[in-house]
Design a protein that fits this description.
The protein has 267 residues and is α/β, with parallel strands linked by helices. The protein contains 12 helices and 8 strands. The chain has an 8-stranded mixed β-sheet, sandwiched between helices. It is globular.
């Protein structure tokens, strides 16, 4: 594990693979941490890539900053990590909220993006109903903690049939959710409620794009993934059978294979 600082905030990350390998940065979603991507990091490192897994502010081993964390702050801190490591540009990917932060990086810092991986995510700005819901959830997590929420949504984070069929994956997801500081989760939810619409950003993308989605994802559906592909016609869309919102935990081999095949063909 390494650490770096941005404006006095201490942030954590880990690296896999050779320093001279093709750089790949993978961003976790909410309310998780960098361990979400480790199975894929291992596969990519084995293929010769240099893989960087950050803990976003407020998550994992990074510092918790109460209040509201706008997406430009998350994006800027990931770019600061590239600066810290001397990486000019990288394949940048993320899942769910991490996918939206990836789009924010592409919007604000296009020169740092060699290719995009968008996993189980969506591009539109939040609806008014969704905005109200995220703000209410932030207050609930601060009042009640993470446990009840984690128990409620585990059957949507994973496909319902995988909660029992894949107990190690379920335990991993629950451990991440329950271990997240409510202040960090609430700050991210408030920022996510005000996120940009990324239609124009995606429409302008010329670099390679991989879109990944679990076939049974009920948060960001196959239809959401197909909507991204319509905006980026040259994108590769991979639907992972037997998976919900987190296919890289539910079907790590298939998801890892798709990532390796994509990343190793990026110039």
């Amino acid at each position: 594990m390494g650490t770096y600082e941005v404006d006095g905030v201490r942030l954590a990350y880990e690296e896999w693979g050779p320093e001279g390998g093709a750089p790949v940065v993978l961003v976790h979603g909410h309310p998780f941490d960098r361990s979400l991507w480790r199975a894929q990091a291992r596969r990519l490192a084995g293929a010769g890539c240099r893989v960087v897994l950050p803990d976003l502010r407020g998550y994992g081993e990074s510092q918790v900053v109460p209040g509201r964390t706008p997406f430009p702050v998350f994006a800027g801190e990931v770019v600061a990590l590239l600066d810290h490591l001397g990486i000019a540009d990288a394949v940048v990917g993320g899942v769910s909220m991490g996918g939206q932060i990836t789009m924010e990086i592409r919007r604000l810092h296009p020169e740092r993006v060699r290719a995009l991986v968008l996993a189980d995510t969506s591009y539109p700005a939040e609806t008014e109903e969704g905005r109200v819901g995220r703000l209410a959830l932030a207050e609930r997590l601060l009042a009640e903690g993470m446990g009840g929420y984690a128990d409620e949504v585990i059957g949507r984070m994973l496909a319902p049939y995988n909660v029992e069929a894949k107990p190690d994956a379920a335990a991993h997801v629950l451990r991440m959710m329950r271990g997240t500081d409510p202040e960090g989760a609430a700050a991210a939810l408030r920022g996510r409620a005000e996120r940009e619409d990324y239609e124009a950003t995606l429409s302008a993308v010329t670099e390679p794009v991989l879109v990944v989605v679990g076939a049974d994802d009920s948060f960001t559906t196959v239809a959401d993934a197909e909507a991204i592909r319509r905006l980026v016609p040259h994108a590769t869309l991979t639907v992972i059978d037997g998976a919900g919102h987190l296919p890289h935990l539910e079907q790590p081999e298939e998801t890892g294979e798709a990532l390796v095949e994509f990343v190793t063909k990026v110039d």
